[in-house]
């Protein structure tokens, strides 16, 4: 999967915003940039995303995947996946969609309604 394809996919998920920070990384949030919650980070040939308990167990040792630097070391269940090998593009899209859903579920009911995610 190419970075441009990942960005196009994330842009088409509901109620997302995009910014570039942390040394040129594409950062995707659920909600507005200010106050939104991160669900994906992509830089060069890798992306990081939030995963469920099951996703964590499956992916942390999978080919082309590892616990996401900085995030996983702080106790968060985030995986970094190589965009050039390991997971298929369809699998990356599924995990990005799941990450979006996990992050959206952590928002207040009021916020989800405001964003059209209830």
Structural features, described:
With 118 residues, the chain is of the alpha+beta class. It has one domain (3-110): Aspartate Aminotransferase, domain 1. The chain contains four helices and six strands. A hairpin with a 3-residue loop joins strand 1 (16-21) and strand 2 (25-30). The mean pLDDT is 93.
Write the SSE topology.
Elements: H1 3-11, E1 16-21, E2 25-30, E3 37-43, E4 46-50, H2 53-59, E5 65-67, E6 78-82, H3 89-105, H4 109-115
Antiparallel strand pairs: 1-2, 2-3, 3-4, 4-6, 5-6
CATH topology annotation: Aspartate Aminotransferase, domain 1
What are the low-pLDDT stretches, counting only 5+ consecutive residues below 50? none
Count up the domains. Answer: 1
Distance between the termini: 30 Å
Helix content: 25-40%
Radius of gyration, CA atoms, in whole angstroms: 13 Å
Structural class call reads alpha+beta
Beta strands, count:
6
Widest sheet, order of strands:
1-2-3-4-6-5
- H-E order: HEEEEHEEHH
Strand content: 25-35%
- Biggest sheet character: 6 strands, antiparallel
CATH hierarchy: architecture? Alpha-Beta Complex
Give a quick set of tags describing it.
six-stranded antiparallel beta sheet; 27% strand; Aspartate Aminotransferase, domain 1; globular; 118 residues; alpha+beta
Brief account:
By secondary structure, the protein is of the alpha+beta class.
């Amino acid at each position: 999967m190419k970075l441009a394809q990942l960005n196009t996919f994330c842009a088409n998920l509901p109620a997302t915003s995009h910014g570039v920070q942390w040394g040129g990384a594409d950062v995707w949030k659920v909600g507005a940039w200010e106050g939104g919650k991160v669900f994906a980070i992509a830089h060069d040939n890798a992306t990081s995303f939030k995963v469920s308990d099951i996703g964590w167990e499956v992916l942390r040792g999978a080919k082309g995947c590892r616990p996401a630097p900085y995030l996983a070391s702080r106790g968060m269940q985030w995986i970094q996946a190589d965009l050039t090998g390991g997971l298929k593009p369809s699998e990356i899209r599924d995990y990005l969609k799941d990450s979006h859903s996990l992050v959206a579920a952590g928002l207040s009911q009021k916020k989800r309604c405001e964003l059209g995610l209830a």
